[in-house]
Amino acid sequence: MTTIYKDAKGLFGLALREHVTARNLGWSTAQKNWTITAIWWEEDQLRPIYEHAIPIRPQIVPPLPAGIDYSRPANKARADAARPAQRIRAANARIAAAAAAQPPAPPLALPAPSLTVTEPHTLDHITPESPVVRIQSPDPDLHPRLYPNYWPLEPWDSEPEDPDGGSLIEAKRTGVDANEEEQAYMKSQPLQLNEDESRWKGVEFIAAGAVGCAGLWVKTDETDTIIDRMVVKECRPTHASWYFRGHWRERRPREIKIHELVESIRPPGISRSHRNLIQCRGSRLMMRQARYRLYLEHCNGRNLWRAMEGRWFEGPKFRPNRKRRPFDTPALDADKVLPESFIWYIFGSLVDACLTLQLGGIPDDEGGDIAEDGPAEAGERTLQPGWKPITHLDITQSNVFTDWDGEESGNGNWPRIILSDFGNAFYNLRPDNAEDSENPLDYSFGATTRYPPEHLPGNLRRYTSKTDVWSIGAILWNLITNEYHHDGPRRGGPNNKVAKPICRPGSNSTNILTGENFPNKEHYSEALKILVRECLNFEPDERPDFPELRTRIDEHIAENDDIREQIEDPPPLEWFDRDNWGAFTTGELFPNESRKSRE
To answer: Of 157 and 447, which is predicted with more confidence?
Structure first.
């Protein structure tokens, strides 16, 4: 739900607070309030922009004007000095001092009330006898729009009604029960542009987060047989993101543009370069409502987090300033340990996905075309001409899905591993080594220690492919130890000692997957653990890159017959409950109970 502001200063405060949050500046509430007050009264050219936006419904939050320093918080003294009464008193004191030192100046000619003030307005020349001149908002006829120049050019596409208004996402964000909102969302149409959607039915609500939600829709024919299915993801970015330059690429939201780039080089049929990346069927951008929808392939398996649900050992959260009870990690029975060959399989799948994002494609095992730009020799892993390397930036268990269906499914008893959710993915606007590079500030989202060290508050190191390497290493750490900690992987040490998070200064690869804390690690080879340690190195430059990882994975599989044979002819994974995730399969009748529940 959109907050309606009655005064322009409040609207400016919203923009500045979201700017501070998006850039993870770490200001206190008092610092935010002082900075809002100081800038609001110091920068006279800023106020008309927000005064003009107040009567607009739905309310537009203009972007922060350029040319003003928003990087440093103001203190109380600066805020007090900026207030109008204090500025007038200071101006009067200067005028009185000047009058005592020299003859009075001739009267100041006041501008006509209709004069447009284009230069920053100051109070230095206002005398006590001068009438107050109000700076009026720009003429609406001369300034009909406050759209950033990186938005799509008008005319925009027609838009459907928006009865929800984001209430579902707002309820999820605030922890309010949203069952009614979920049902209303699934009863709506997918809203594809210029498409007949009379045969599409929403059947399953999947998830909702801070800025988006997703559900499964299926399409049936006249006999009620399912002939198609897709996931519809609704995204409602914050006001700060919608107006933020870094959120856009080539006049498209960054997430949409990343999907379009990936699909532009996806070869037809089965392809090693794209089999591990979620497929996007299309999108719809609704500019007036500040939202968009993505239409994605449906993965009928769980994500890795759900697949391991009930098997993870969730350790206590690490709190450095609070006394903690030590814990013992429970050991799994040997027959319940995740096969090492399957971990190598997941490892290789995620590396292949990131190689495609970084290089614009990878060769098949036998070589061949990997992109429209031309062929590549077998084993060659180099940047394709014209491709802009993409960093995913949010590789977690929840964003890695499994799929058992279709000609591109996994190796028999094992699912296809699919990397999804490009909401934080980006490619650089300027080279990494440029002094004016927008990386990392434009892409920081203030994550915790379960994310790579580059996300830590105050970090100024740029996000690169090595950031995604750390994230993959964290997933492998979870699978090897059979543990999940909400503050990230832990360092090893003596048993009965609380292990500290890896993502802390001073951590290095020598104390990862060592010690007695995590007994399940003993079921896996030292070669696998060494590679995971290197991926989780605190220093990005000391982590391997993706071409090196792919080479070392291939070498290990080739040198170990048991691993290679299980990947080629995989054994069943008993704990993957496939039956509960095969509903709504194409070619089957639409379930009657689903029809009744919808009615």
So the answer is: 157
